[in-house]
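agent> call fold_tool(seq_1)
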Amino acid sequence: MDRLPRERETWANRAEFILSSVGYAVGIGNVWRFPYVCFSGGGGAFLIPYLTMMCLCAIPLVFVEFTVGQYTKRGPVEAFINICPLMKGVGVAMVMLSFIVASYNNTVLTWVLYYLFHSFTAPLPWQLCNATWNIPENCSSFMENATTHLQSATKQFFDHRLLEITEGIENVGHLRWELVGILLLIWAVLFFCVFKGIRSTGKVVYFTALFPYVVLLALLFNNVRLPGALDGILFFLTPKWNKLGEIHVWIDATAQIFYSIGVGFGCLLSMASHNKHNNNILRDAMIVTLANSATSIFAGFVMFSGIGYMAHVRHLQVEQLAVEGPGLAFVVYPEIFSTMPVSQLWAFLFFLMLMCLGLDSQFALVEVMGTFVMDSFGPKILLMLNYKELVTLLLCFLTFLLGLPCITQGGVYIFQLLDYSVGITLMFTSLFEVVTLSWIFGVWRLSIMVKRILGKPPNVFFKACWLVVSPLSIVAILVTAMVQHSPLLYGKTYLYPAWAEGVAWIITFLSVGWIPLGAMHELLGRKGTCLAKLKASVTPRITLEEVCNVPVTEDQHQDHVKSLYSLSEVSPLHEEKDRGDMCDPE
């Protein structure tokens, strides 16, 4: 029992929390997705709906996750159990979603590290068409051109050397053993970065969160000196004002900010649970959100300056090279590096940057899983395994095993299918999270939490966003996705079979299904009439009494949290027993 933590670990300083949160929010998607979505959504005009939705959705939602995490001092599962027992499944759905993403997300890092290792050779292996993996009669040393029907050498390296891609998801082929070794190496690196919890992660993020900005800045300085770079930047930023009247542009802006900032996974909530009680969560929420959006826009300059240069060199139009996702990172940009002086150096720095961006996001996903296990089963597990580090090791090994199907020969099809299902799942978990916190738990209770932390309640703007704007925005994304649903494609030609989309919905249910299951478990486990069960199930177990006009001290709140969670059965009416003694949240 001496090995059990006496109180919750806290960040060594505010910088570690900020860098961890920024590192989680700023991921590979900021580099390979936002620039494409921006130019296709109207260029510079897209920034208007994007920044608008950042203010109306991203900042309020990050603020509310920070509030709940910092006040309850628990991860998403335990937090929702005490906030609204009926909706405890929301916390479980968040952890399951993080678990699924962590299991397949390292596939991208496996590809990145593979390219990183091959960046030391001269010439770069994706430059020429005379390698054993090439199809010489269909290979071009130049970028793909629709008029010639030839594949670029970089595209063939990605498909036939890295992936050894099969014809479809029906044939996944065998494991790519060299990728298995790389995946195992990545999980080993992750384990040694997170095995001490926030004590080790908080130190690593000083490098992994800041180094990508150094590389982005160096790439921009290098790119803007190249011919054609300005054309690429102008293509990225030139406003198409007519796009502002199209509803799908606003939906795309909302979806981009949701996917980018990472609400709905429980990671921000979990990281905030390690804060000191009086940490300024509003200031931190604004810093994290603004840093995320600024990085996306800055990455757009970097990506399109390079694309403009390549279009100039290959005598192509910029839009012919403007792609998103893996095609940008593993096909277009490797081709750009092959034409630059000191190409090995730029390739190495670029893929090292992507590695850092991906690792930061994985840190948070592993942290939320570890927080769930320790909050829910900590004492029992530690008595069996003796050390918390073994819990982290088992989690890493399990997610490593679950990620193996994605590095088979047909693993890229599985990867895209999982990514597709996660996009749907995230919208559902985010919607239930906002509805639970704002409508069931209540904005007035959230206001009490904020007042207890900051000494003053949130203003009308945040309350309106929590109550109306954020839920409606998520519903709009879901409705639009259903109305505009189209068959799932890989590339431009491969159509997924119907059963594969059925599998995607099963994966979605593995996460979202915990919400109705949790509600049923809560209602069936109570006694009394249906109305009494429902009323008790939506009554918070957490106490919000003793709110004063100034923030409580850290020691006072620690005593408060210990007394709350030391109770094996907290009365559901505890919080309501003396509302008259509370300070008015207004």
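agent> call fold_tool(seq_2)
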Amino acid sequence: MSKQTYRVCFCCHRRFRLPVSEAPEDIKNLFELYSENGVMTAPQLNKFLLEVQKEHNATEEGAQATIDGLKHLNIFHRKGINLEGFFKYLFSDNNPPLSPSLGVHHEMTAPLSHYFIYTGHNSYLTGNQLSSDCSDRPIIDALKKGVRVIELDIWPNATKDNVNVLHGRTLTTPVELIKCLKSIREHAFTASEYPVVITLEDHLTPDLQNKVATMVTQTFGDVLFSPGSECLSEFPSPESLKRRIIISTKPPKEYLEAKEVKEKEKNDAQAGKNLGDEEAWGKEVPSLKGGTLADHKQNGGDDEDNNDEEDLDDGDKSQHNAAPEYKRLIAIHAGKPKGGLEECLKVDPGRVRRLSLSEQQLEKAAITHGKEIVRFTQRNILRVYPKGTRIDSSNYNPLIGWMHGAQMVAFNMQGYGRSLWLMQGMFKGNGGCGYVKKPDFLLNTGPNNEVFDPRASLPVKTTLKVTVYMGEGWYYDFRHTHFDAFSPPDFYARVGIAGVPADTVMKKTKTLEDNWIPIWNEQFEFPLTVPELALLRIEVHEYDMSEKDDFGGQTCLPVSELSTGIRAVPLHDNKGEKYNTVKLLMRFEFLTL
């Protein structure tokens, strides 16, 4: 089909010529440079892979296999490939921006506290935080995507003789705990063989805690990592815990009576009803500049979600009625010590623990105690969770946690939007195994016991140069009137960095009118002070003069794992699912200073 017709009114039509996907000028010039007489042979393709793509393990045998793989396209030459074949290869799934051959390549023998861990929040909810169903389905979906930390809120059932999972004091419908545990057992290692942590928010009597202990033990058997009732002096490594399941919760206490219901949580949730996403694909990720998120003021006040974690008591006063079998299950002890922030962040050389802070608590703490948080997370685990006003299951900027060393930045995985895209982008790294080794600067101490200061101004380490050549695939993945009822789409791309405040920026290409195959040919440069934490954000939108711009795809990629050279970058929908054919042709280069 060479032309496309759009109806303007009942008697008028407009016809548009459909463009053909052609190699950009840069690609033509490179082909000329690495070919002879219009043909690129295996040795010449191998030279291109070594010199332009920086694929240092490339071989002539591999180049020949690539050429042989193009035979079915009827663009194969007896001695090699022509320009069309070269272009098809560069714009194919065989030329991705992240090399699948890397697999799990980070050191995996360090303690768990040395890793960012793919973490879910209220993992059982199918939708919003107030009235959606609870189910094991979101848990299964999360595990299949590589999430390694599953959160379950456990409560007595109506007859107080069994245990349900639900978001307490809301209208969410419960699901039985045993169903969730069995689904975790079945799907825990579908996407990754590295350990799954189950964080339990416990609202049970001691007899029901004993019942949970029996369920957990019988369901997981030898897969359960259970070091006994004593706190660990150091966390084990992901490597040593392969295909193991770990329980993390606060030590048992007597059942909390209904008088402890926090009305504030309900009020906060009600106040948050009007804070939904502004656009179909979610709000812009809040800025971290100035030490607070951009939406901190508009939501007002702290979300002291005291149900998320109870105070720890150094003595045994609170554990008179503790269920010993339940206590022995806990491998990662959680809780907040009595006292202020200084007490919370104290590092005990004899034991390690998990501390939870809401996103707002972390924002405030980061202003005055940034270095102390970094020091705490070198040995202990910090979990950050969404504030209670996020009743729509939206999320926050995860960089506030990562730049302070927080391992468990807990997200509502059933939602969507730009913040979740960043989370998905971070954990595309290290083979998608759900564990990403923290940068050394977050783990090291200096000669005077100093640690990384997240608020310090740092020099530029490197500059990422990005060329956005073109895009294609929308014609095949969308109805021809999806973007515009009267003409082909008007696409533009947004490219930028999510990272520490000094590195964070978004830039935009020009808008190309009436074109299913936009060819932008634009370059952008991004100076990076902390490339280790930088994520490359890529979005495509369709300009709409009268309404909000339409969403045309997105992806987010860890800068530290980008393959240099010219790459085909597949785009995903707003929930992170990959489109069938939509992709961009881009080039990535790191400029030396």
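agent> summarizing second result for user.
Confidence is low (pLDDT under 50) at residues 254-281, 291-307, 312-320. The first strand starts at residue 3 and ends at 7.
agent> awaiting next instruction.
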